[in-house]
Amino acid sequence: MKSIQLQQLAKSFGETEVIRGIDVTIEAGEFFALVGPSGCGKSTMLRMIAGLESITSGTLRIDGVAANGMKPSERHLSMVFQNYALYPHMTVEKNITFGLHTKGLTKLEQRERCLQAAETLGISDYMKRKPRELSGGQRQRVALARAIVTEAPICLMDEPLSNLDAKLRAKMRSEIRQLQRKLGLTMIYVTHDQVEAMTMADRIMLLNEGEVQQVGKPLDLYNKPANTFVASFIGSPP
Ligand code: ADP
Ligand code: MG
């Protein structure tokens, strides 16, 4: 388990400041939801933490260690994207083990880890299939298996369920939450769906136009909104 600390973290694209001085510490083992309307900067913030986007100013620490300049592979994290980002020409098994080839594991160790992750996600029967031969829900499970197989203590998810229908989304919410608890992951979970955040998270950070509106437990945002933006965002239907 690892903590993540942001101090005055900011990001500009050219003249446009899209993340404005964010201060927060995400505790080790916490399920932390990052919510806000489309375009408010959620993906940018997640990508900065992952090392996929440079940090304009401020400091990022992972488990107390300054991480601004660290390579993504040194950050002890895995990431799950909205569009799953599976390799279409590779089998499910290859997709899951792809991230392991830099870890100095033998082929047998890779296969064992892969089978275990596949079993956890209930996709053991599809190992020889290609992504196009799977349903949306099965593809999502492959993406989740690919993240957990790395055994990284931090997991970043960017709207992972937004391509699924409502029923499957509800099922996957609880599965992801169980997985996070079981593995003791430090989770940053991006969603624009406040119901998802309210039902899954230990704490929520609500962003608007790159600025933090409130950070707190779901019920605190609901019962004690810091401003009218928080009240209307948390109180409105998805
Ligand atoms: P969200 O994930 O909350 O929908 P994003 O982080 O994707 O929001 O985007 C935040 C803002 O930054 C948006 O105004 C978006 O247009 C802008 N943005 C994101 N990526 C880039 C980029 N590579 N270049 C310029 N502007 C960008
Ligand atoms: Mg986004």
Automatic annotation (TrEMBL):
Keywords: ATP-binding, Cell membrane, Membrane, Nucleotide-binding, Translocase, Transport. The keyword Membrane applies. Residues 4-234 form the ABC transporter domain. Transmembrane segments: none annotated. One of its GO terms (molecular function) is ATP binding. This is Sn-glycerol-3-phosphate ABC transporter ATP-binding protein UgpC. It comes from Exiguobacterium marinum. The lineage of its organism: Bacteria, Bacillati, Bacillota, Bacilli, Bacillales. The chain holds residues 1 to 238 of 363 of the full protein.
